[in-house]
Write a structure and sequence with these properties.
The chain is α/β, with parallel strands linked by helices. The chain is built from 16 helices and 14 strands. The strands form 3 sheets. A 6-stranded parallel sheet has the order 2-1-3-4-7-8, with helices on both faces. Strands 11-10-9-12-13-14 form a 6-stranded parallel sheet, with helices on both faces. The protein has a two-stranded antiparallel ribbon with strand order 5-6.
Length: 403
């Protein structure tokens, strides 16, 4: 099967791209021909069709991208022309879209349908129904059930949901309202892939046809790293974006209250403020092998999100090396972690409960061993890359048969 994968970034920028490139490698290993289409970003990995990629424009009020970046959010003609050329040359059996909003825009959807190619889009966050992507009202208050409608998103400006900025919120609200009124995604996507039942439910409530949404959990490669005994583990690890909705400040405060060491891996808007805190042991961005190594040596991975998570790859990566997870019981996380079986779940925003969970795993070697073993077994049985690809290929075949 020939598969064209489309994403705004052609490099590993976060969990979305880690999962996407993992799928590409695994599909190629199965004998499928997979190529990438992205914007022409200087950090991109080598790609067959790189010479055809449309320009990358930094988006944001006051950013260097300027008017071109704002224009591309609504309709990116360069991207539409470029992807049509790539589709004509590559002749894919299916086009699989990931993060296309804003930089590429839904303009890239029509080219596939114009040539009769079926389309699939993986929704990694809430961008199809939330201008801020994260279901946080005002950027801080969990927003579910959603306060916005299904076509007009003026509430995002009223509450300044995007970085607490009126200008950024207005722009994001206009962009999504424009696409939903035009039914850009409904017309251009044959099937939406949701990595969690929670996200599938949010999308259906946001106006998307449930019959065109398939739940396909993310998959993780089996780890070659042996599960370490508790005696060889020390401290805890936070790995993710350093932003308010991820609750990283809660993780640091809980570690202080629990009297345990916490390493903080990742980057983001809070990096500067956290660097000024002596108790925050910042590790910066870690590549995949180093992140796995540090996960395997931690008592637990900490993911104390206050926003609605979809299906974090970080959790699966920790499970794959036999490391328990302490996470917020929010969004799709309880679909990955059963409390007391594969890790510990705590109420979002409850620092005392988070600290208590950290103290518990710091003191109980038997519990760490039991949770870690169960987590690894579940990762290998239910969240294997093999299971993920089997379900994804079934979606490809289904949309192909219906086209």
């Amino acid at each position: 099967m020939r598969i064209l994968v489309v994403n705004k970034f052609g490099f590993v920028r976060g969990g979305l791209e880690r999962g996407m490139f993992g799928d590409i490698e695994a599909l190629r290993a199965l004998g499928h021909e997979v190529e990438l289409f992205a914007t022409a970003h200087p950090d991109n990995a080598p790609a067959r069709f790189a010479a055809s990629f449309p320009p990358y424009h930094e988006i944001g009020v006051g950013s260097a991208g300027g008017p071109a970046a704002v224009r591309d959010m609504f309709s990116n003609r360069d991207a539409a022309t470029a992807i049509a050329t790539v589709i004509e040359e590559f002749r894919p059996d299916v086009v699989h879209y990931h993060g296309i909003h804003r930089h590429l825009s839904p303009s890239v959807l029509d080219a596939a349908h114009a040539k009769g190619v079926p389309t699939v889009l993986s929704a990694h966050d809430f961008f199809l129904v939330c201008p801020a992507n994260v279901l946080l009202r005002g950027g801080s208050e969990p927003c579910y059930p959603r306060r916005c409608g299904t076509r007009l998103y003026g509430a995002v400006l009223a509450h300044r949901c995007v970085q607490h900025s009126a200008a950024r919120s207005a722009l994001a609200g206009l962009e999504l309202s424009f696409q939903r009124i035009r039914r850009s995604y409904e017309r251009g996507i044959d099937r939406i892939v949701a990595p969690s039942a929670f996200l599938a439910r949010v999308l259906a409530e946001g106006g998307f046809d449930p019959a065109r949404i398939s739940v396909v959990p993310n998959g993780v490669e089996p780890s070659a790293i042996a599960t370490l005994p508790p005696a060889d583990r020390s401290g805890f690890l936070y790995a993710g974006r350093l932003s308010p909705e991820k609750g990283v400040d809660h993780a640091i405060e809980a570690a202080i209250r629990a009297g345990v060491a916490l390493g903080v891996a990742g980057g983001g808007p809070l990096a500067g403020a956290l660097a000024a805190r002596q108790e925050a042991h910042l590790l910066g961005h870690l590549d995949a092998p180093e992140l796995s190594r540090r996960m395997s040596r931690a008592r637990a991975l900490i993911l104390p999100s206050v926003g609605y998570e979809n299906a974090p790859m970080t959790i699966l990566e920790a499970m794959a090396v036999g490391t328990p997870v302490i996470a917020s019981a929010i969004g799709g996380i309880p679909e990955q972690i059963e409390d007391g079986v594969h890790g510990l779940l705590v109420p979002p925003g409850d620092v005392d409960a988070l600290a208590a969970a950290m103290r518990r795993l710091a003191a109980d070697d038997d519990l760490v061993a039991r949770l870690g073993a169960a987590a690894r077994e579940r990762a290998e049985r239910e969240f294997s890359i093999g299971n993920h690809l089997e379900q994804l290929l079934a979606v490809y075949r289904d949309v192909g048969a219906r086209s």
